[in-house]
Amino acid sequence: MITFSTDMIAPRDRFDHWRDQRGKKLFGVTLELERERRTSFSGNFQASTVGGATLATISASAYRISRTPLDIADMPIDSLLVSQQVSGPGWCDNGKGQPFFITGGMLMAGHSDHPFTSTPSTASRFQFRTVKIPLNSAQSFARFAQHLPVTPFDPGAGSYSGLMAASFTALFDTASPLAKTEAEQSVDALGQLVLLARGLVAPGAQASRLAVRTAHRHALRQVMRRHCHRMDFSAEIAAPMLGISERQIHAIFEPTGRSFMATLQAMRVEEACRLLMARPAMRVAEIGFACGFRSLATFYRAFQGIVGVAPNDYRQWPGDRSLH
Question: pTM of the full predicted structure?
Fold first, then answer.
């Protein structure tokens, strides 16, 4: 993990450093900000790698950003970029004659070596997350991705866009981080889904089917986390939320070696662990029922099986409280 903050730099030098060292040398982009606003500028970012891909989160004062033909000539990147504007609205012009408005939560994707300009519509801070996937001949989507300018995706407009959003969210989920192998698979799936959403690769291709299944697993887990407190929650209830069949729900978890119900129980126990420590005055029985368990016997059995101790003992446990 790489982290950087302008807090360690004198205010008068912050934007110049961010522009030259972080924007130009690290990302190959041109940054612009009115001189009178530069002394109040601040920014920070963190980046990590998954396989050959880079995941980055940027939070900073608003500024204008562009990737010009000169930037591309000086620093060709040849990557598929999948990004999300978490906050901070603005306009993006990809040079194709149809600028689009960027709102909070919007996903965008395109090849790194197509010019674009992004202009904030307010002076408020922004937060931005991006996945940079270097292209290579082994990827089924590589040759198609090179022709894709930066374009927006509406997660509610189609199934592939929604699955892209689920995969993107899973990659940045620090509360439930993906294991290394699954994270790498998820990066590949995200790239394939971008091209599927644009109709540039075949839905029936093996890589496409794998990408859809991987993204469905992320979407399903996210739905399960939102509803795991419901005692009646089941695969039958989850299926229509995702627009798939109950049989597909169970098939999604086959590669993980853990069933739908076992995964749901683990999520409930994880939430119970959190509440046991966060709310010391809350009775164990209340916590069990609040986490979706139908009976105390089921709660104690599941908790003991996953954590290794009873809920009451967990509160007094002096050691590592990570789940076994």
Answer: 0.89
Q: Is residue 114 within 8 Å of 104, Cβ to Cβ?
A: no
Residues 252-262: tens digit of each pLDDT: 988 888 999 99
Question: Which tokens hold the place of 267?
Answer: 């999520």
pLDDT on residue 30? 98
User: Are 232 and 295 in contact, with CB atoms under 8 Å apart?
Assistant: no
Question: Which part of the chain is CATH 1.10.10.60?
Answer: 262-316
The answer to whether the beta carbons of residues 150 and 81 sit under 8 Å apart is yes
| CATH, range 1-153 | 2.60.120.10
| Pairwise CA distance, residues 198 & 191, whole Å | 11
> Any residues with CB less than 8 A from the CB of 86 and at least 6 apart, and which?
104, 105, 126, 127, 128, 129
What CATH number should be reported for the domain whose range is 262-316?
1.10.10.60
pLDDT along the chain (324 residues), means of 10: 93 96 94 96 95 95 97 96 96 92 93 96 95 88 90 75 93 92 94 93 93 94 96 95 92 89 96 95 96 96 95 80 53
* DSSP for 158-181, written as a single string: -HHHHHHHHHHHHHT-SSSPPPHH
Task: Give the C-alpha distances (Å, rounded to integers) separating 75 from 26, 29, 67, 69.
Answer: 10, 9, 10, 10
Which segments of the chain belong to CATH 2.60.120.10? 1-153
Q: What is the pLDDT of residues 188-228, one digit of tens each?
A: 999 999 999 999 999 999 999 999 999 999 999 999 999 99
